[in-house]
Design goal:
The complex is a heterodimer of chains A (about 400) and B (about 260).
Chain A: H1 2-16, H2 19-53, E1 56-61, H3 67-75, E2 79-82, H4 90-95, E3 101-105, H5 109-114, E4 121-125, H6 134-156, H7 177-215, H8 217-222, H9 228-260, H10 266-275, H11 278-305, H12 309-331, H13 347-358, H14 363-388, H15 391-394
Parallel strand pairs in A: 1-2, 1-3
Antiparallel strand pairs in A: 3-4
Chain B: E1 2-12, H1 15-20, E2 30-41, E3 46-50, H2 57-64, E4 72-77, E5 80-81, H3 86-91, E6 93-97, H4 108-118, H5 123-136, H6 152-164, E7 170-174, H7 182-197, E8 201-206, H8 209-215, E9 218-223, E10 226-232, H9 233-239, H10 245-254
Parallel strand pairs in B: 3-8, 3-9, 6-7, 7-8
Antiparallel strand pairs in B: 1-2, 1-4, 4-5, 9-10
Classes of the chains: A mainly alpha (about 400), B alpha/beta (about 260).
């Protein structure tokens, strides 16, 4: 026991002095998490504002056939109308982004409208254009023109508006605000802390296994009175702790991000902060602990097998992609926590966290998740200890 | 005292290593790194294990230090069997290799404390032994500087201190002077001599004949896992048929 504590304390001190570990374990989750959340929102908002503020150039052909529509376009914000544009060059001009769109009202349009039939207006646009907003702005204006015509027809014929709007849907959402937000945000939170509990464990895991081999210190350690079990457990303890700290910092990063987003409505902010309450965070943390131990055991096993730091890095690096797949599956709509999914490692953490945040967790499924996770962590630790006891692994050349 | 009796060590061969080792090993499942080796290292004497690279020296020393288990035969260190009481053995040995084998992010002080803690030394005993070693090796000036920032000489001193901090009765040196400059090599040679004067058991592996001549009381020549000579250094010298040690060694191993 004493040797286990000695190894644990030394390894912890050692990795906390490693700049790479500090960056991956503390700086990245602390900076990346808020940056991802706040940055994505800001970029999205900026794109929307940019799209709104952008002046679009629209060729309007056949203004004499729909003068009212032409007027609506003229009054539209940030729209430059071009008359008499050669019809043959419309497609090429939009493709080359010389103009953003075109509206063509053919000469038979007035006849259709006057006879209370449906008139057709052609709208040209390029959906792959930078902000994709020209089509929306043009159709919005045409729709308001359409509404004017319909209203005029209803008045003229003395009809009731309900004739065209037979059914009104009144939505009665029984889910609480927490459930709604939990189901949406709940998928992304586990994404963050599962990823970080792996990334946080990665460098210490490589350093305490392959790094030890590379420095030649493994022989010093193996020739000390500490037995292999104590050595592995001491190392595993530190690597797991690094993953857990990293995941915790990622959660802290989410708090910071929420505080940084300026325009969250007060009631929603309250729900979010309630959702990230102490009890839920502690419960989620208890899910992170076995998964972090599992990651630590896997990383350390690979690391102790590798001949060098570089070799370990080249094997463990791509594993990032593997662990993220079950997390991404957890984000898909329709994938729910049930008796079967509760047994799938990583995916079960993702789904359980989602339900925990939404407040809709089934306690039986949660117990199942815990059992499967602790079993998984146990098997991984057992495997790691066995692996560490193999001469072929330790002295692989 | 180290007693090695009919020790052999086989390693499994992977497909890759079979291919790398050529036609002779094409169908082999194992390779014998050490083959029926027996010798004794008594206390107060330096035993030199001499052999070229890949002869089986490191494997033998690793078995003595309980890092590897012999496939057959047995080894006792200070009266304890390496397979029955490996922990008791490890409590009584110091292991040093050519690599300084230090943790760059620790200080020399922390490094020796780590080994002392693993050895279960009590604080007072540790402090007095550390001060004594730091005095002898003149380490006080850099005792609290990170190892990564130390010169090779300083690192080597730290390595010596961590090897003997727990005052082991058996010290194993695995090619400790490989790649070292003359000054640092001399420090290691001095350390080995001091340990001999203190009555410790010293097992020392090298591929350099001049080091054996300089240091060893007893010696064994190992090649392709087998011993070709085992006895007192003077006996080896008297049996020599060639003028130089190198020629004698080459002749002896070539006959194999």
């Amino acid at each position: 026991m004493n040797q286990f504590i000695t190894i644990f304390k030394k390894e912890l001190k050692d990795i906390l002095r490693d700049r790479r570990t500090i960056i991956m374990m503390i700086i990245v989750p602390m900076v990346i998490t808020p940056m991802l959340i706040v940055g994505m929102l800001k970029i999205q908002r900026m794109q929307l504002e940019k799209a709104k503020a952008k002046e679009i150039r629209v060729a309007f052909l056949g203004k004499e056939n729909a003068p009212q529509l032409y007027q609506i376009f003229e009054e539209g914000e940030k729209i430059v109308l071009i008359d008499n544009f050669p019809v043959d060059s419309i497609t090429a001009s939009i493709a080359s982004e010389e103009i953003d769109g075109a509206v063509i009202v053919h000469s038979d349009f007035p006849a259709y409208i006057e006879s209370d039939r449906q008139g057709k207006i052609e709208v040209y646009f390029k959906s792959s254009e930078a902000y994709g907003s020209a089509i929306k702005r043009m159709t919005d204006l045409i729709e308001s023109y359409d509404e004017q015509i319909v209203e005029e027809r209803i008045d003229r014929l003395s009809l009731d508006k309900d004739l065209f709007d037979a059914v009104a849907i009144i939505e009665m959402d029984v889910s609480s605000a927490q459930e709604r937000i939990g189901k949406i945000a709940g998928g992304y939170l586990p994404y963050m802390f599962i990823l970080f509990s792996f990334m946080g464990a990665m460098y210490p895991g490589i350093d305490l296994g392959a790094g030890e081999k590379e420095r030649g210190t493994l022989e010093t350690l193996l020739s000390s009175p500490a037995n292999r079990l104590q050595i592995v457990l001491g190392k595993l303890g530190v690597v797991s702790l690094s993953g857990i700290i990293s995941a915790l910092i990622a959660i802290l990063g989410i708090y910071v991000a929420i505080q940084m987003i300026e325009d969250i409505p007060a009631d929603m902010l309250e729900v979010i902060l309630d959702m990230l309450g102490f009890r839920i965070i502690i419960t989620i943390l208890t899910l992170v602990i076995p998964i972090a131990i599992f990651f630590a055991a896997v990383v350390l096993s690979i690391s102790i097998y590798a001949r060098s730091f570089k070799e370990a890095q080249s094997i463990i690096g791509p594993a990032n992609m593997i662990i993220i797949i079950p997390v991404l599956i957890g984000l898909l709509p329709g994938i729910e926590l049930n008796a079967k999914t509760a047994l799938v490692p990583i995916l079960n953490v993702s789904l359980a966290s989602k339900d925990l945040l939404a407040g809709t967790i089934n306690p039986f499924h949660l117990v199942e998740v815990y059992l499967s996770l602790f079993l998984l962590a146990g098997i991984a630790v057992w495997g790691c200890v066995k692996w560490f006891n193999r001469e072929e692994t330790l002295f692989r050349s | 005292m180290i007693k090695i009796t009919h020790v052999s060590k086989e390693f499994k061969l992977t497909k890759k290593s079979r291919n790398e080792m050529g036609e002779a090993y094409r169908n082999a499942k194992t390779i014998k790194a050490v083959d029926d080796v027996s010798f004794e290292c008594p206390p107060g004497r330096v035993f030199g294990l001499l052999g070229p690279n890949g002869a089986g020296k490191t494997t033998t020393l690793r078995m003595v230090a309980t890092m590897l288990k012999p496939t057959s035969g047995n080894i006792t260190v200070a009266g304890y069997d390496t397979q029955i009481d490996p922990q008791k053995v490890r409590e009584r040995i110091g292991f040093m290799t050519g690599q300084t084998a230090l943790y760059d992010r620790l200080t020399p002080n922390e490094m020796v404390r780590y080994i002392a803690d693993l050895q279960g030394m009590d604080v007072t005993e540790f402090k007095s032994r550390r001060d004594q070693l730091f005095d002898v090796l003149d380490m006080h000036d850099f005792a609290n500087r990170r190892i990564a920032r130390l010169s090779t000489g300083m690192k080597q001193k730290t390595s010596i201190a961590r090897t003997i901090i727990h005052n082991p009765e058996v010290i194993i040196f695995d090619e400790p002077t490989v790649g070292l400059d003359v000054m640092t090599s001399r420090r290691i040679i001095e350390l080995i001599r001091t340990c001999r004067e203190e009555g410790k058991t010293i097992l020392f592996s090298t591929h350099r004949m001049e080091e054996v001549k300089l240091l060893c009381d007893d010696m064994a020549i190992i090649h392709q896992g087998r011993l070709f000579f085992c006895g007192k250094f003077e006996d080896f010298e008297s049996q020599m048929t060639f003028d130089s040690f190198e020629d004698e060694f080459i002749h002896m191993t070539a006959e194999a």
